[in-house]
């Protein structure tokens, strides 16, 4: 199962089921275990190694409960917020709450109009949007790190 994780100030604040067009009853049963797996993975492998302060990342949890990173994305409007709104995420990080973990909890909560088979970022490749902006920021960060390492 795949999940999108939301990080603000290098603190994991939200987790969303990635495939929001389907209800998976097993997620209700395993929700607390999955939360602990993702939090542990973030604290042990992501937080200290990924220098950005605000970002999202997707993880895939295998049947034998191994956590694998799928990708990283910038924080904000070019990244889908899935079962959250960006306003809700802003409120969560400003309130210093614990991690909020959202899944589709019954068939009525399915979001059939939200297609996630292709990352949203791929849909908009125009200058100043989506991948263009992400790659520009990545280049800036690489230059900043290279300059800092050589100093």
Task: Please explain how this structure is put together.
By secondary structure, this protein is α+β, with helices and mostly antiparallel strands. The chain has helices at residues 25-46, 86-94, 120-123, 130-150; strands spanning 2-8, 11-17, 55-61, 67-74, 100-102. The longest helix has 22 residues, at 25-46. It is globular and about 50 Å long. The N and C termini lie far apart (43 Å). The model has no long low-confidence stretch (mean pLDDT 84).
| Rg estimate, integer Å | 16 Å
Classify the secondary structure makeup into a structural class: alpha+beta
Give me the oligomer status: single chain
Roughly what fraction of the amino acids lie in strands?
15-25%
Tell me the number of helical segments per DSSP (H or I, 4 or more residues long). Answer: 4
What is the overall pLDDT average?
A: 84
Question: Secondary-structure element order, as H and E?
Answer: EEHEEHEHH
Helix percent reads 25-40%
The CA-CA distance between the termini, in Å, is 43 Å
């Amino acid at each position: 199962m795949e999940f999108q994780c939301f990080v603000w100030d290098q603190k994991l604040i939200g987790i969303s089921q990635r495939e929001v067009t389907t209800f998976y009853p097993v997620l209700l049963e395993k929700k607390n275990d999955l939360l602990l797996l993702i939090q542990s993975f973030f604290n042990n492998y992501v937080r200290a190694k990924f220098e950005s302060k605000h970002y999202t990342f997707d993880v895939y949890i295998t049947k034998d409960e191994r956590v694998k990173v799928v990708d990283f994305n910038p924080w904000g409007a070019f990244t889908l917020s899935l079962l959250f709104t960006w306003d809700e995420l802003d409120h969560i990080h400003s309130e210093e709450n614990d991690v909020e973990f959202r899944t589709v909890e019954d068939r009525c909560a399915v979001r059939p109009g939200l297609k996630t088979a292709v990352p949203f970022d791929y849909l908009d490749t125009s200058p100043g949007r989506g991948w263009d902006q992400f790659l520009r920021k990545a280049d800036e960060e690489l230059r900043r790190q290279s300059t800092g390492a050589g100093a």
